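[INFO] parsing input record for U3 small nucleolar RNA-associated protein 25 homolog
[DEBUG] input buffer:
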Amino acid sequence: MGKRRSGRELLRSLSKKQKKHLREFGEEHPFYDTVAVVVVVILMLPFQSENSDKLSAESDSETEVEQVSVYHKLLATLRTSPESESEEDESESEESRESEAEVNSEGSQETGEADGGEEDKNDVPEEKAGTTDTTEQTLDQEQDDGADTSCDPRHGVIEEFTDVKHESEFSLETNFMEEESGDCNADTRDSNPFKQHMDKELEEKEIEKMSTLPKTSSQSQWPRLGQLTFSSTLEKHKTLKADKEVDVKQLYLHKPLESTWPKVNKQFLSSVNKPSDSPFTPLQRELFCIMNTYRDLFYPERNALTNGEEIRHAYCLHALNHVLKANAQVLSNNAKRRDRKPGSDTDDYRDQGLTRPKVLMIVPFRECALRIVHIFINLLEVNDKKKIDVSNKKRFKGEFGSDPEEKPPNLKRPEDYEAVFAGNIDDHFRIGVAILQKSMRLYAPFYSSDIIIASPLGMRTVIGAEGEKKRDFDFLSSVEILIIDQADIYLMQNWEHVLHLMKHINLLPLDSHGVDFSRVRMLNLNNWSKYYRQTLLFSALQDPQINSVFNKHCFNYVGQVAVRNVPLTGSISHVVVQLPHVFRRLEAESITSVIDARFQFFIDKVLPEYRDAIMSHTLIYVPSYFDYVRLRNYFKKEDLNFTHICEYTKKAAVCRARRFFLKGEKQFLLFTERFHFYKRYTIKGIRNLIFYELPTYSHFYSEICNMMKATDNGVDATWTCTVLYSKYDAQKLAAVVGIDRTAQMLQSKKNVHLFVTGEN
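[DEBUG] output buffer:
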């Protein structure tokens, strides 16, 4: 009875968001650690394996040929592996008896984060009070007279809510441009980038050329962005130069934005700026210069600590400017159609797509969506007296804001961790936003929305899979701007969701959805929407999978711009312990065979050197979960003395593994990158370090190496670090050791020995 009562109490301690995630996916969000419900990992694996079958076949060489690899065989064993089942059953039975005693005993030996006990009870990062609180206060200050508050999200929402009450008020078909605004005249200028891009009529031979011929590229050096690569298929593109000074009036912003943008962006500008100075930071100026030409953009240097919010404000300005111009054109043409003479040509009024959504914004967490909507509201409010009407904002704040009850204690985490995981970090959401002149409608049905803000998982669940009865992706047919922010985080969530989205965007809809075909642009009727779509991709790193999306799924006829700066030093310069680094090169014939080649190289040449008892306290860092499972199964088969920690390991098992490894009772510790991404624990007792593969985030390399200084009784002379790499790891290698060393290491087939003193 005591155990059952304890389980029920722990279940009640979970928040609504945690319980919802637990019901839907059979596991708690990896970010949280206080799982009280017994969830066998094997129940979750079919969901992972379904997506991972495709992911394992996706290669950095951009091939789509599906091959039978060892991962497919591994996944088959995962579903029915008796070893996994017995291991989990044993872990479950031990956990109920030992968890409390182990946490207490560990707490007497270690303090702070190293014990893993007290911390696991409240393993949620501290919120960044500044931006989050400001966002919520803004939504609090605005009175929501027309909001539907009948269903409070704090008391649970069973069905997804959409606002149907304001349908006619936000309909583009039944509304007209307000005469007092006069914005429609500005949007008809031929030099307007929006009009130039959307009004260009491509020919069939140009479409065929883009589908068959390779792109031509050229290089350019910009003051702030650095090395840029311009690529295009249709024509020899003109060299685009960065504007040193930007006049807001020359950007053809929609009328309200000209006056509101300088005020909204003031927080990022220097305090000594004069009113006549540019309302953009140097980074924003160059980014917006590219965005405003409607070229695709890939910027792989986004940093949550430094420039993340600058970038968010810049793309929000561009997206809102596009929507306001598009809607103003429709409303203006509504008035012209109403006043036109009978029998006049109706082709002059083709100003819409097959469906209404024009902008799709993919962000990782609800907190990101909250900040985006906050920026939209500020950009639309000309002054404090002219507040815009925002429908359902109270509900929005409740569902996307952070719960004060979940505010964690002060835990020591790196600054970048706290910046990424600030606020509401639920990763399953989607919301439609409709904007019409001086009003904004949150929770608009997708087919009545101008902007859709969603996470990859939120889009995956509504798009569905082939064969499912309830699935819908017609609303993606006429997306004109796709913004994917913080793409690197999706590598830690599920990259397959991003690929699934890219395969279903800009397809012909299966239903008309009440569209007036006399108003639909010919580019949409010809199924050429993808050639007009602008894709803005922001990431904290360059990765082959992210590069593949930008190269294979972006078809903009204007061309693409990618920032291609190379790291000069690398994260190895941030290692503060004196440590010999041995980089061991493995050979592989192709990118598809490197997975098997790495495993064979490890068990044949690396692992035998560490089997001796002298080489104890060896941590093996494994970026891929499937490599981790493969190694775990091999270690079991060979009956090696090891323990393991992954993102699905329960808190009692984590405490146990850390204690065993610290005391030397277990010689090896298998450690996954995704666990480190979500937890950032300091693992004590490391004397020997093996990077089975270079980390996805380069700064993880120095973080893991610097964990060695946490061991008080360690001897510097005995510490070792071994890294496995191949010629296909050039980008990751350059981020760790720098571009100069990378070039030397790729040319030489010998092992490379580096000794870092902390001053390199």
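[INFO] The first strand starts at residue 216 and ends at 222.
[INFO] shutting down worker
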